[in-house]
Amino acid sequence: MKLHLEIWRQAGPTTEGKYESIDVDDAVEQMSILELLDHVNEGLIESGKEPFAFASDCREGICGTCGINVNGRPHGPDKNKPACQQRLFNFKDGDTLQLEPLRSAAYPVIKDMIVDRSALDRVMQQGGYVSVNAGTAPDADTLHMNHQTAELALDHAACIGCGACVAACPNGAAHLFTGAKLVHLSLMPLGKEERGKRARKMVDEVETNFGPCSLFGECADVCPAGIPLTAVAAINKERARAAFRGKDN
């Protein structure tokens, strides 16, 4: 399988980047996007050239570190799949693939296709946790929670923090990411203790570092975890709830 690659090359955050053209004549349809980059890098290393930098870890669609843009779309052409699960059988022989970092003002480029997504970490630092008394673990049935609510919470907890939602949004909004965290923790018994405080601090952080929601739903279309678009509504819902109560809970 022959492919023409246009891969982003950028030495650092303060330098200007550009695309570097590479032709691959022996790609295999079963390769993932990351395996294709591995293959390209092996050839560069053998010829004494610098390989392209990109992030990855588990390569099982769990860790969320492999985010890149493929032909302008976060992760690749398949809906709701991370880059490590995007296979070359989605492309035709002779196609051109443009590989670049996730594009967002909130994601400064570190090198090549690696970006700094610590803005998402700062959102989590504001309220993505629960406070509990240390000591012996409570009995399993101490805190009651029905199955339907637990499943809904788990559906939103599935977010892997890859940041594709931000890159897909033309406004660079992080509402799907933040909304998923707010819904998850608001449904859990322990998370309800700091619900109001969490909403105020996390939403304030989001509005400081990210843009407003575009209302088009591009974020849910690329989310590898399949977080529902309804999670976005939690931003205004939880903030309004916190303002009405005027207390941490």
Automatic annotation (TrEMBL):
Pfam families: Fer2_3, Fer4_7
This protein's UniProt keywords: 2Fe-2S, 3Fe-4S, 4Fe-4S, Iron, Iron-sulfur, Metal-binding, Oxidoreductase, Tricarboxylic acid cycle
Domain 4Fe-4S ferredoxin-type: 150-179
Record's cofactor remark: Binds 1 [2Fe-2S] cluster. Binds 1 [4Fe-4S] cluster.
Boundaries of every 2Fe-2S ferredoxin-type domain copy: 1-103
Domain of life: Bacteria
Enzyme nomenclature, EC number: 1.3.5.1
Any single biological process term in GO: respiratory electron transport chain
Catalytic activity: a quinone + succinate = fumarate + a quinol
Xref: InterPro entries: 2Fe-2S_ferredoxin-like_sf (IPR036010), 2Fe-2S_ferredoxin-type (IPR001041), 2Fe2S_fd_BS (IPR006058), 4Fe4S_Fe-S-bd (IPR017896), 4Fe4S_Fe_S_CS (IPR017900), Beta-grasp_dom_sf (IPR012675), Helical_ferredxn (IPR009051), SDH/FRD_Iron-Sulfur (IPR050573)
Recorded GO MF terms: 2 iron, 2 sulfur cluster binding; 3 iron, 4 sulfur cluster binding; 4 iron, 4 sulfur cluster binding; electron transfer activity; metal ion binding; succinate dehydrogenase (quinone) activity
Iron-sulfur recorded as keyword: yes
UniProt xrefs under SUPFAM superfamilies: 2Fe-2S ferredoxin-like, alpha-helical ferredoxin
Cofactor needs: [2Fe-2S] cluster; [4Fe-4S] cluster; [3Fe-4S] cluster
UniProt similarity note: Belongs to the succinate dehydrogenase/fumarate reductase iron-sulfur protein family.
NCBIfam families attached to this UniProt entry: dhsB (TIGR00384), PRK07570.1 (NF005746)
Full protein name: Succinate dehydrogenase iron-sulfur subunit
Organism the protein comes from: Corynebacterium aquilae DSM 44791
Biological classification of the source: Bacteria, Bacillati, Actinomycetota, Actinomycetes, Mycobacteriales
